[in-house]
Amino acid sequence: MTISNSKDFFAQIKKKPENFYIVHYSCQSLNDDNEGLSPRITSIGVTHFATEQTVSFSTHAIAEEMGILREDVGEKFDQVEEKLLRDFYGFVRDRRDKFWIHWNMRNLTYGFEHLEHRYRVLGGTDAAVIPVERRINLNDMLSRKYGAGFAEHPKMKSLMEINGGVHRHFLTGEEELQAFGNNEFIRMHNSTLCKLGVTSRKVVWLFPKQLRLEFVPVFHGLQGRLAAQG
Length: 230
Known about the structure:
Layout: H1 6-15, E1 20-27, E2 41-48, E3 54-58, H2 59-65, H3 77-92, E4 99-102, H4 112-121, E5 135-137, H5 138-146, H6 155-161, H7 173-181, H8 185-206, E6 212-215, E7 224-227
């Protein structure tokens, strides 16, 4: 089964919430200023929508399990990242038939293909690939339901601002990069979990129509804040 429109998505997740997982991850800079050709993965978070239970795959936890000191993580990051991704795919393997909600994880630059690529680069050969038909971009679903101007860019942060404020653990991409450079791995992972939680709450709020959207006309300068309708 494939969900390709917002009406089916909201109907299915309300009817069978146990079939939906929400995923988000953090990585190095998405530009060309990394030491490698593709950004390293630093943490991944997955939340089961029905139970609200979250599973984490994070640099600091993996390094500690492997007995690697904080100051040695940088030089041993290949080992840490490989195990992080191996554990993630071990979790995914028996859940590939579920739906995976994400926020703009579209392609090799930032997305499921990026995770798969990094795992292959590090020697992994058994990635549990989530079929494209089971991936649901929440940003696209909101755009299809309310129009592309449902919030200002960056949309995730804008939605936080008009729905209670930006969480204290939220980091911009630049701030996450700085945290990585400072070996602040817990801070980075907290930001990942923050964004994961924001994505989850957006879905929850849509049911009682509590999610506030900031409608920004594409061709006009007028802006208005109003609760989501319909």
